[in-house]
Every structure is written in C-alpha cells, then in structure tokens.
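Attaching the record inline, Q. Sequence:
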Amino acid sequence: MQTYTDNCFTTTGVVQTQMGQVEENFAALKSAFSGATTPANTVAGMWWFDTTANILKLRNEANSAWLSVWDFANNKPIVTNNISADFGAALKDPAAGTAGLRTLGTTSIKACAGNDSRLSDTRTPSDTTVAQAKLKTSTGSQSGTAQATTTYQITTSAYCFFCNIYGQNGYFSLWASSTDSADQIGRFAIYNTIGGTSLYDVRWRYVTSSGETHWIFILRDKTTKEVVRMWQAPDHPCFGCGKPLLIPHPFGDYDETKHEIIVINPTNAEIEQMELETIVDDETKPDKDLLEIIAENYEIDEGSSPSWPSIPVTVGLPKHIKDKTGKKKLADYRFMSPDTVVEPVKKVIPKPSYIKCKSLKRK
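Structure, as predicted:
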C-alpha cells in the first residue's frame, strides 16, 4: 500500500472521504509503503519495502536516495552502502605500520594466507627460535654437614644438568657412586676430603621439570630435633627414576633409629615469596639458595598436619612411545618427529609410614 494523503482534513471535506484517507495512511505506514515502484511524496527517514527487489529501503537524510537495509530474499543485512566508506582499500590493505583490516597475502604489509607454511604446527623450528629462557627449567638443592671422608647421596637425577657444590671450611668432590646398595647405584655422592665437620650446599638445574608439587625434605635428629640435612626441588626425588618406592626420599644415610624425615609441600605462592627473598642486590655476592632462606627465616610448624599430596605427579618420561601406526617402540628423545606426542609418566607418590607432613612458619 503506497497511497498517502498529507492533509486529510479540510473545512469543506466530506467526513467519509477524509476517514478513508486516514485509513489509507495507516495502511501505507503499516506496510512500510510496500510496492513495486517508488512511493510518491518521499521524505527523509521514510521506509519503503520494494516488493520487486524484495528489499527494505530507507530514505536518506537529504531525501535524495534510497539506502538498502535488508535483503528479505536471502534474509541478511545489506552492507554495500558502507563498504566504500568503512572498508575502503586504504583500511583493508594499509601501508606497513598502519593499523587496518589487512587482506590475505604474503607481502610484507599483508597477513599470511590461511594455508601458509608459517602457520603449520608440524614445521620444524630453526635453532634460534627456542631460547634458553623459554625452556621449562627449574632448580633443586641440598644442604647439610659432612664429616671427614664420609659420602652422602644426592639426587640430581637423570634429567638434570651437572650440579655445583659450595662449601665452608672444607673441600668436596662429586662422583658417581658405585659402591652403594643396588637402589643407590648411579646417584651422585658428596665426599668431604678433609678432617672435621664442614657445611655444604649443592645446587642443580633441571633440564625439564613438572612444577606440579614442590617438595622439601628435612632430615633431623629424633631426639634433639637438630636439622641434619635438607633437600628441595620442584619434583619428587624419584623424578627421572620413575619409581617412588625405589627412591622414597633423598637421604641415603637415613637411620630410622635416630632420624626422622619431615616433608613440606609449600604452595606456588609460598615458593614465589621465598624465592624473592633469595635475591641478593650486592653484585659481589651470589644469590642465596632457597634452603638458605628457609634455614634463616623459617621453622617447622610442629602443630601443623597437612595432607600428603594425593594427586598424580610427574616422575619421569616414558621408556616406550607409540608411532603413528600405534606400534610400541623404544623412545629415543634425540630423534623424534615433530608430531610425536610424549605423555610424561605420572604416579601418586605413596607416603612412607615414617615420614611426617608439616608446614613452615616464619621465625
């Protein structure tokens, strides 16, 4: 309906005629002036449903043209009128360094195509794309006192860089033990080469670490409660070995008749706070170790009784993997195809009955 009368009422008009014009006006408005041709007497903001093109149109502000709004034949909006103004070539493909909606392509000022090899997840990265800072490494340490000509095992594990040792009033050496019991073979040992009692601090860096649960082991005298040795790392001492029953703790000289073992599992937030305290601003002195900070500023909360970690944690990497065909083969971590998926070995660490779970508190 497109008939519309602007001035329906006149002093000499016939009521029936005037009311008929009012009804026609409402019918035109109701149908958005639907029709096959352009309505007469157009005004700015006027709607017109073009039944020929099946498009809803709106008269522009200057009352000089119709703007297509909605395509009812395909039930979608029409954005043609906005393309030149809002999505022009200068914005779609601007000069380098200029923000805009860039078209696909491979030149220096365009986004790469969707099938570009740079987007492939199987492309082997160059040697310089993986920086050392991006490796998932972490540190572990062990401290205590060593008697003359006495050896103590340290659990640097198979997945660690060679460790460094710091000593006070003594000379120390590190060597792979070959005279220990079967369950200790291959673990490094610390050896004090002079007489008397000397303090030592051993630190190592993990090639890779899970960081799921932080472990602090403390060996102390049952009677005096004096700390004999401490050990801390972001993984359980069996990490790399994969067998927590074989290496339940890091102390090879543990004697149940005179020693007790305390295990502390601080939260990530607590570890972060303690590690902030290890930083030494003096450029002539080394940063402190986490165990130094614990010994200086913290003590065991004897009244605490936290739960033993019950979640599966990483204990090593699998000895076997499956190829694309599902065939099981020996894992050679030196030569693996980029699409190889390695799932670490995870286990719930069983709690030895003689180990006590405690928390730390500020002194």
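The longest strand covers residues 138-146. Residues 305 and 358 are 5 Å apart (CA to CA).

More tomorrow.
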